[in-house]
Amino acid sequence: MNHQQKVRYILDTIGEMFPDAQCELNHSNPFELTIAVLLSAQCTDETVNKVTADLFQKYKTPEDYLAVPLEELEQDIRSIGLYRNKAKNIQKLCQILIEKYDGQLPNTYEELVELPGVGRKTANVVISNAFGVPAIAVDTHVERVSKRLGLAAEKDTVLEVEKKLMRKVPRDEWTITHHRLIFFGRYHCKARAPQCEICPLIDVCRYGKKRMKSQETRKATHKSKAT
After folding, report:
1. Separation of alpha carbons 78 and 192, rounded Å
2. From the record, what ranges are coiled-coil (predicted)?
3. pTM for the full model?
4. Boundaries of every domain in the chain
5. In CATH terms, are 1-19+140-227 and 30-129 the same topology?
6. Which residues are catalytic?
7. Dist CA 61 CA 89 (whole Å)
8. Which CATH architecture has domain 30-129?
9. Other beta carbons less than 10 A from residue 14's beta carbon
């Protein structure tokens, strides 16, 4: 199996495992999605969804976020990590949307990454999910899984991982592959407890093979000491 065949095999396998993978951040429009992704940095989607359930009822527009003192917005998102910095970025972002974009969220990657608190990952999530533009956003799950499966090198930066995935994955599959890699990493190939024992990709996973061999060696050593 050459590398191109391996990539196709990986894509098809995770597609069978998670055919309905999609963005798990609750939102009803591009603006809400941007706020949700901004809040999700170093935080779980589950926690963000709990916060935005009330947040999105209270704040509907950029003007709403600017109509309250910063301290009030901080309290509204207090259960989320880095809430003070995120509250500041939300208000700065909303101010720019009003002044530069007539209160509307821009729909291009180049404009989105210029907004406070919006990096490459957030911009890619927004353009792909809200505007239908093919993109691969690299979060911790995508980075971890890509390196474990050999789609990227262990020392690659997040940007390098993104570029390699864009080269290897067909463009029309970028967005769904992003979601499936997240699901694969979130629910199967977890950071501390990957399910290598039942993984259908173990044959093409150097990390998994190494981990399984290490476990077998430990078991053999333990058994030898016990006897």
Report:
1. 28
2. none
3. 0.88
4. 1-19+140-227, 30-129
5. no
6. 121, 139
7. 15
8. Orthogonal Bundle (1.10)
9. 25
CA distance 200 to 14: 9
Annotated binding site for [4Fe-4S] cluster: 189, 196, 199, 205
Question: What is the per-residue DSSP string for 176-211?
Answer: HHHHHHHHHHHHTS-SSS--GGG-TTGGG-HHHHHH
Report residue 70 as tokens.
């910063």
Tell me whether residue 156 is exposed, middle or buried, using C-beta atoms within 10 angstroms of its C-beta: 0 to 12, 13 to 18, 19 or more.
middle
CATH number of 1-19+140-227: 1.10.1670.10
Q: Binding site: which residues? A: 189, 196, 199, 205
**What one-letter code names the amino acid at 221?**
T
Q: Buried (b) or exposed (e) across 214-227, using 16+ Cβ within 10 A?
A: eeeeeeeeeeeeee
